[in-house]
Every structure is written in C-alpha cells, then in structure tokens.
Amino acid sequence: MSKSLLRIALAVAMLFTLFVAPGAKAQDESPTIYVQVDYMKVASGSEAEYIDVEGSIWKPIHEARLGAGTLVSWSLYAILYPSGTNAEYNYVTVNVYSDFNHTENTFSDEMVQQAHPEASDTDINDMMARTGASRDLVRSELWMAHDLLQPSNPAKYASVTQMTVPSGGDSAYLQLEKEIWKPIHASSIEAGIRSGWGVYSMMFPNGTSEPYNYGTVNFYDDYSHIVADFSEQVLTASHPDYTDEMWDVAFERTGKVRSVYRSQLWQLIDTTDSEDAGN
Q1: In sequence order, which residues have a C-beta less than 8 Å from that of residue 237 and are 6 or more positions away?
Q2: Which of 43, 47, 41, 46 is nearest to 92 (CA)?
Q3: Alpha-carbon radius of gyration of the chain
Q4: Is the separation of the CB atoms in 217 and 159 below 8 Å?
Q5: Total count of domains within the chain
Q6: 36, 262, 272, 21: which is closest to 144 by C-alpha?
Q7: What DSSP string runs through the chain?
Q8: In the 3-class helix/strand/coil scheme, how is 51-117 assigned residue by residue?
Q9: CATH code of the domain containing 152
Q10: Is 63 domain-assigned?
Q11: 100 to each of 32, 104, 150, 203, 213, how far by Cα in Å?
C-alpha cells in the first residue's frame, strides 16, 4: 500500500462512522425512512431491570405497532463507549418509520391492550410507573435518512458518528458522501467486513444551538472488523482509478465539508427483528 493510501486508511479507521431498518434487504436505493432516537440514562445496578422493562413491557407493544403497519422496526442498544457514571446516557432505543405521520402518535391504548391482553388498567399503570423508575429519558431526536446500504440481518454493533455540517453546506456534504464514501462503504460490505451503512440528517431538534446535525453509521457483525475496515483492497475496489493525489484531494475535501462532533460504539441488545439479538 502506498504511504498516501496507508495514511488515509488509518485516518478513516479512526473516524468511526444513524440508522437503517434491520432486516431489510441490501440495496442501493434509499427509501424514505425516519428514525426516532431516545437516549436513556440507567443507574448503575439497574441495567437488568431496565432491559427487562424494554423486553417484557415495550417490545410486545412495538410488535403490535409493527403489525399495525405504523412501525418498521424497534431496537435497543447499549452504549459501549463512552461508558461509566459520567456518561450522559448509556442506552438508546431506535424506532424506524417509513411514514413521517406515524411519528406523531407512536402508539395507542389499543396497541397496549393488544400487546398485554390480560392486563388491567391498574396493571398498565404499574407498567408505566415501572418504566419511569427504570431509566431517565435524557433526550429524543428525529432523523431522516438520505442514503442507505441496508444490512440483510440485524447487526450486533453500530459505529455511530455525529457530525456538524455548516449552514448552506448540506448539498456539498451529501454529494461527498454519495460520490466518495458510499462506494468505499459498499466495497467494505462486499468484502464481508461490515454489514451496512447510512447517512442521516437530524430533523428535530435543529438550529444553531445544536452541536451536530448529521449522522452516519457503520454496522458490523464481527467486533474485530471495526478496526480493520479500510484496507487497501477496500479502497482500491471502491475507486480503482484514484491516484494518491486524488485520494489526498478527497480526504481534504471531506475535512472541509463537515466536522466530527462525536463517535460512539453501540451494541445491539434487543430488536423486533430477532428473538436473541443480544446473545
């Protein structure tokens, strides 16, 4: 590998690149997808209780929403990095929709009763109280997908990067992702290194007070692949005609159109698409 390609590969590997619908077929076409991300803070020692609340109370409700056609998928992730008591949040739930209108009223009383047919009103009130006691909802965001390479199965790991694109720079950034980086991600998927990729813009909240407004994700089935992604094989296969000078220009262009706010590593704990996602 040339020094230029090696430098680029190492630099890109450090920028771990919000969310596709698990279970969808791999494809180049990008359907309109909206993603609600809820960031949860769970107290130390309460993790098992929170995971049980999500699995026993809420997962059946999400499956009822899935059956009603108002939801594409639901997933629960644990944040591996950052971690510790000072972390702002340590779990994330992801709700994926194919219709913006479905994000208004995410579930109804009828769906709760369908999910828990034997539950009384008191039981349901107790479920809601147990939910509130199990975690603090730190923040909610709504994202829209712009480009996707979707995994065929739920991936165990998601490398998530939140980015800042300057005002007026949206087109330039999305064009860069499509022309330069999407072929690299596709080449990595073809090589069996990663299983999916997507780029998203944050719809709400928005404004200059928000520290990031775009996000990308890389999905992996194998933990070791997270740091062994951008090989010479992957880079050459993605852009076989690129010279070292062209790679230099591409990498410089990338740095100009966006800045990386934060990168995190998430592990899938549960999802509506798998009974044993966290095993």
Answers
A1: 187, 190, 191
A2: 41
A3: 20
A4: yes
A5: 1
A6: 36
A7: --HHHHHHHHHHHHS------TTPPP-SS----EEEEEEEE--TT-HHHHHHIIIIIIHHHHHHHHHHTS-SEEEEEEEEES-STT-S-SEEEEEEESSGGGGTS---HHHHHHHSTT--HHHHHHHHHHHHHH-EEEEEEEEEEEEEE--SS--SEEEEEEEE--TT-HHHHHHHIIIIIHHHHHHHHHTTS-SEEEEEEEEES-STTSS--EEEEEEESSGGGGGS---HHHHHHH-TT--HHHHHHHHHHHHHH-EEEEEEEEEEEEETTBSSTT-
A8: HHHHHHHHHHHHHHHHHHCCCCEEEEEEEEECCCCCCCCCEEEEEEECCHHHHCCCCCHHHHHHHCC
A9: 3.30.70.100
A10: yes
A11: 9, 8, 20, 11, 18
> Is 170 contained in some domain?
yes
Is 0.85 topped by the overall pTM?
Answer: yes
Record the tokens describing residue 211, joined without a space. Answer: 């520290």
Q: Give me 24's structure tokens.
A: 């969808």
- Using CA atoms, how far apart are residues 134 and 157, in angstroms rounded to an integer? 24
In-domain check, residue 277: no
236 in a structural domain: yes
2 Cβ neighbours under 8 A, 6+ residues apart: 244
Domain that holds residue 7: 3-271
Confidence at residue 201, expressed as pLDDT on a 0 to 100 scale: 97
Mean pLDDT by 10 residues, the chain (279 residues): 45 45 44 92 96 98 95 96 88 96 89 95 96 97 95 91 96 96 94 94 95 96 85 89 94 95 96 60
